[in-house]
Amino acid sequence: MNTELRLTVPVARVLAALVADPSGDHYGMELMQSSGLPSGTLYPILARLTEAGWLDKRWEDIDPSEAGRPARAYYRLTPAALPVARQRLAELHEQTRPAHPHVAAKEATA
Amino acid sequence: MIRRLCHALLSSAARRWPADLRAEMLAEWRAELHALPGGGRRLRYAASLAVSRPHREAAVVVRPGRNLAHAVLSLVLLAGLPMVYLELALGWTTGYSEDTVTWQAWVGAGSILAAAGLAIICARVTPGVTQLIRPVLLPLWCFGSPYATLAAWPLLSGHLPNRSHLASGALWALSAVALGTLAARARPALVSWGIVAAAVPVSFWFLSMSVEIIAAGYVGSGPLAEYLFTLAVRTPVHVAVFLLVYANHLARRPRASAPEVAAARA
């Protein structure tokens, strides 16, 4: 798994959506809704994460003619990627967390 | 109607994706499109994919038999276009006066843009060169071909080449090749194209071995404006832009893998 993945804001949004339900199977439309990203941004990220070994992609096991619809593709974080994703999101959260009012006031008066 | 349009947009989007993922992504998008409610949402879904870029560029796959044809066409373009252009442009770059510098500056700037545009068109019609020549060697190919033609041109008319011109031309070509090779290896794209932009004045400096200023006194606003005017109207600069953009555009295009070439052959 490539851990040197660049964590941009859209990538972080997708990872956050996946981490929120790590054992669930996620499909494109659902990830678009939970991440707030349009399809043109989401799918290149999913492809990059899959190629980097962060995601497992599998096809829905249905007979399209019986189900009356085509099979969907499902994504899930790999077991190796889950702790890394959590750690990277926590680091990002820490970096972007606004300073505590007391700390900010101290820094301002220093 | 909307359904057809959505499918056309998805097919168009899939064509830009790498060949190994194309069919799989198209099937996935069609399945999601099928599940989406409402024509507007479907259209937005398909349009967003149609205007977006994939996570990696699709490799250019050229049928093996066409590689040689592309290389020959590339050689003809690289050796022929600069020679024809230098002959044609001779007329409007020799005289300067207060009345002409303004339109000469505009024509010069337009020529630089046209050279870059023409280079991209030429690179797109000769992608097979990258199957025969490694990307890092493309600048050498691009500057070596016109330099050899330029050096041999006087011999065809029964004259000996001017040694001074040959030497300054060699310095121009070598400096452009060195920076062009650096640009071909550089990542990301902004750095790579930044090196290409820097290679234009640097190679021009090697051509004249000085900061050449022409039309001094006619162009106002100081030495920088005079230098930019000089760069804009000098034909070797236009030729360098054409050759550098051509080389870098080709060098940056992903090369087809062996399975992709085999699939194209089949």
UniProtKB/TrEMBL annotation, chain A:
SUPFAM superfamilies: Winged helix' DNA-binding domain (SSF46785)
Organism: Catellatospora methionotrophica
Segments of this protein annotated with the region Disordered: 91-110
Source taxon at top rank: Bacteria
Protein name (database record): Transcriptional regulator
Stored InterPro entries: Tscrpt_reg_PadR_N (IPR005149), WH-like_DNA-bd_sf (IPR036388), WH_DNA-bd_sf (IPR036390)
Pfam families with a match to the protein in the record: PadR
Residues spanning the signal sequence: none
Domain Transcription regulator PadR N-terminal: 28-80
TrEMBL record, chain B:
Superkingdom of origin organism: Bacteria
Membrane-spanning segments: 71-91, 103-123, 135-153, 165-183, 190-207, 227-247
Keyword list, A-Z: Membrane, Transmembrane, Transmembrane helix
Transmembrane found in the keyword field: yes
Name listed for the protein in its UniProt record: Uncharacterized protein
Organism, scientific name: Catellatospora methionotrophica
